[in-house]
Amino acid sequence: MDADQKQRIAANKAAALAKLAAKKKRKSDQAATQPKKPRTADDCDTCGALADAAFRTAFSIQTCNACRRRDPSLDLLNATDAARTYLLPQATLKCLPTLERENPRQPTWTPMRLFLRRHLVEHANRRWGDEAGLEAERRRRAAAKVKRDDAKAKDFFS
Fold first, then answer.
1. What share of the chain is helix, strand, coil (3-state, %, to 5)?
2. pLDDT band, residue 15 (cuts 50/70/90)
3. How far is CA 85 from CA 79, 88, 89, 128, in A?
4. Alpha carbons 16 and 31: distance in angstroms, whole number
5. What segment(s) does the record annotate as region Disordered (predicted)?
6. Residue 103: which of 94, 112, 113, 91 has the closest Cα?
7. What is the rounded distance in angstroms from the CA atom of residue 42 to the CA atom of residue 53?
8. pLDDT tens per residue across span 49-99
9. In the predicted model, is pLDDT for residue 118 greater than 70?
10. pTM score of the predicted model
């Protein structure tokens, strides 16, 4: 490359960088002068996007689908998983707010009841004390099951 070519490349680079800087400045000026969108009752509390209407009516929580996927406390669990994981009786589950969806196995069957993990953890902590209390109850139930199974096996083989 000769000196003339190097000089033209440097000039083109400087011009391109100047254009890029001007474009960024225009964008920042436009963003500063444009009024922000006013928040409405249908906006997500976290990010301001449109909140999920079904989630809002079922649980009274303003959250969009993207924020719900990021937060594990906003996961939905069916009744069986909720009872098994948090050792809550059916009477307690009946008191909790639910989101009903069509049963995926058969549309004509009873709709699925989905519970919010945040509510389940809250009620499990109220019932068992804390995570350690819940784990102790799981161990106690597992030991009782082993004892019952041993008694059945003893009766079967004697």
1. 65, 10, 30
2. very high
3. 10, 8, 11, 13
4. 23
5. 20-43, 132-158
6. 112
7. 8
8. 888 888 889 998 899 999 999 999 999 999 999 999 999 999 999 999 999
9. yes
10. 0.68
